[in-house]
Amino acid sequence: MAKVAILSYINRKSLVHELTGTTKLIFFILWSVASMVTYDTRILIGMLFISVLVFKASRIRVRDISVVLGLAAVFLVLNNFFVYLFAPEYGVEIYESRDVLLQIAGPYTITAQQLFYHFNMTIKVICVVPVALLFIACTDPSEFAASLAMIGVSYRVGYSVSLALRYIPDVQREYQNISQAQQARGIDLSSKDKLFTRLKNSVAILLPLIMSSLNRIETVSNAMELRGFGKEKKRTWYVQRRLKRNDWLVIGFVVIVLVVDLVVTFWDGSRFFNPFL
Amino acid sequence: MKKLSVKSVVAIGIGAALFFVLGKIAIPSPVPNTNISLQYSVAAVFATLFGPIAGLLIGFIGHTLIDATSYGPWWSWIIASAFFGLVVGFATMKMHVEEGVGKKEVIFFNVAQAIAHVLSWGLVAPVLDILIYKEPIEKLFAQGLMASVSNIITTGVVGTLLLLGYAKTVVKKGSLTKED
């Protein structure tokens, strides 16, 4: 297996890093909601602009996340391609007008409306990407469970999330070990084998992996039970930090963004901003 | 709501870690640019063993981590993954894998996973995509159909074999017989 590109915590000193995990979690959730609700071009461009500014403030370099950005680009290009393939006149339907720019073949023409729809769809996704990446890159994973608890998620669920983050490297290492051992015995997962054989071969790796995971679940849950996990209604966290002035400012700001977003989007009863009429 | 037991908390955590690792591993499929998603087989097995809430959270946490570390979250599909775990967990609640897996259990598990996949990728994901991202219906249902078919086959083969393999390792009740 080739080394998988996984984005992880990058420790630097910056304004974004200094904010508490709770603030970043709230920002991330409300920002996603704001971008999901609207299709208004003016708001999306505004949000895109702000997210680029936040990215600059975090002192994370583009180089640090270039692999992830590449993946996001591939994803967007494919998505745009399929939308156009299946519905070349979709923009016309939404913006209720039709300006043909270029005739290709059959039903495939390029209209200004379709291009504008693709533009909106793309920036709707792009304006969340920097915020999501920063959330992962600037939040200390051990602070994450505490942040979830702060916004009212049950601490058991928060603990599940931190266990997941804690055991990802272990599971990954184990997968690699098992997979190499099985490959040495002639079990192949690459495209050289037939699809069905490949599926059957994957079981030879997954079954030992699941067995050892079930053992691990047994060990870890016994250890937690012995230490009295889940006895009390509440739990304190070693890494929890109090919200400071900057945290409140950021939370206030993202709430304002969401309110403006909702007002502008629902003011005229349409999610779309239509420059064609 | 019933509180999660300590064992479920750990099962969710490690299940989500498995979901994440398998989701990141690419096993090429015959259709270009798509991969075989092994993570749903494991999610289905874990949902069968640990119940609907565990299934739901494994899908949700695992898929969110995959998306957040690759290209920002695509919420509609994350919710569909969570929904898949929930449905499989509910459907198999009456099934006791510890007491052995026979023909009946295999059929039951496969019907459950097929229904869950069709509902998740053919209904939940496209409907949410329309609500949130306002994508054209034709594209979404073509995508949903593709995803359901390939996931049903993968989970059907891999999930079933995993379940059978697991059942073999569990010592059954009354497996000892008195020698005459």
Tell me what the structure shows.
The complex is a heterodimer of chains A (277) and B (180). Chain A has 277 residues and is mostly helical. Helices cover 67% and strands 4% of the residues of chain A. Chain A has a two-stranded antiparallel ribbon. In chain A, helix 2 (21-37) runs parallel beside helix 11 (245-267) and helix 8 packs antiparallel against helix 9. Chain A is flat. The model of chain A has no long low-confidence stretch (mean pLDDT 85). Helix content of chain B is 72%, strand content 0%. The N and C termini of chain B lie far apart (51 Å). The chains are: A mainly alpha (277), B mainly alpha (180). The interface between A and B is large, with 73 and 61 residues.
Brief rundown of the structure:
The complex is a heterodimer of chains A (277) and B (180). Chain A has 277 residues and is mostly helical.
Task: Provide the fold topology.
The complex is a heterodimer of chains A (277) and B (180).
Chain A: H1 15-18, H2 21-37, H3 41-57, H4 66-86, H5 90-95, E1 100-105, E2 108-111, H6 112-126, H7 129-138, H8 141-150, H9 155-184, H10 195-226, H11 245-267
Helix pairs in contact in A: 2-8, 2-11, 3-6, 8-9, 9-10
Chain B: H1 6-24, H2 39-50, H3 52-68, H4 75-91, H5 103-133, H6 137-169
